[in-house]
Fold this protein.
Amino acid sequence: MNISNTTTIALKAIFTNKMRSALTMLGVIIGVSSVVLLISIGKGLENFIIQQFEDLGTNNIFISPGQVFNEEGGISSGGRQAIQSMSLSFSQEDIRDLEKLNSLSAVTFYSPFVDTVRFLNNTEEVTILGVSASYQQVITTDLEKGRWFSQGEIERGDRVAVLGWQIYQDLFGEIDAINKKIRIGQLTFKVVGVAEEVGGGPSFDGYVYLPFSTASRVFNNDRVMSITAKAKPEVEVADAIEDIEKVMLQSYDEEEFSVFDQAELLKVITDILNMITIGLGGIAAISLLVGGIGISNIMLVSVTERTKEIGLRKALGATPNMILLQFLIEAAFLSIIGGLIGLLLAYGGSLAIQQFFPAKVTPDAVLLAFGVSTAVGLIFGAAPAKKASELSPIEALRYE
């Protein structure tokens, strides 16, 4: 009996008991689809963040209050507290000192505030960024409609606003927002621009931008929460960081601020995302283990039910190795078919999720899930297959 006949017998056994086979594959289907979907979300988010940083440019330098990074290179709890605390911030004098550096081509600053924005009957609670005149130059913010703030509007502190794409959609829908009036808190602002859609989940799309001079007056706070500087093209970013640190150390202790470039921040973020993805993927992989146990149990039941068939095949000349191979193929096909269905579900799920959140099914995730599901079938099918191959033909034929 050749391998082709053995494979045919194994497939016939699977499709003869369709309901049993489907239930057996369920654990593998859930496991594979969960693993692939979670990895695709993690990779999609990582690619989205990388693209965001690339759009900002490669020579941006960030200055934040407190120590953002710990000694191991991760984000420190103190750094998070510093970023969240309005008491730890910078002054306008710091900005003027940084603008004097020859290694920098531009310096921008901004502070976040939270308030309610209204247009007609639509209301949204949003993050409002009070930004300096050079914000659009340093942090690329392309506009879909309208314009950015004029120098005169910034100097006068006019009540003008640029809306992130999602806020524009939520407030205005199909209505043209340019030159329309919105209310922020109790004050009226004129919309002069709408930013291009960034997409991919929570992002710049959810911001409302005001001139810093306006925001500081409206919210009665002129402290700067974050500074971003752009190094000149001919200057090494490391040299520009050194110049910035020298200036900041004149006014602050070393523990009171952090200076870092995009590469450093991106590495920390991607490391965290990879850890989360691996952790969630590992949790989802438990269902693959459960699926493997299900395959093993059903195969053991199948061996018992088909004891007479095994005895007859051995009496007709089938070798123990052929019996072993038959049941291994059967177990492998159960897991492979389950794996393929799981991959299709994961792909469909990723397409649905892409409407709200970045997700990308990668070849690595597909190969990993397919390889693991195949291995699950072979490993958990080995014991039942071995039991079947070792049955005595005489005892098997006597089995009732």
Notes: DSSP finds 14 helices and ten strands in the chain. The two ends are 26 Å apart (CA to CA). Residues 108-230 form one domain. Residues 262-305 form the longest helix (44 residues).
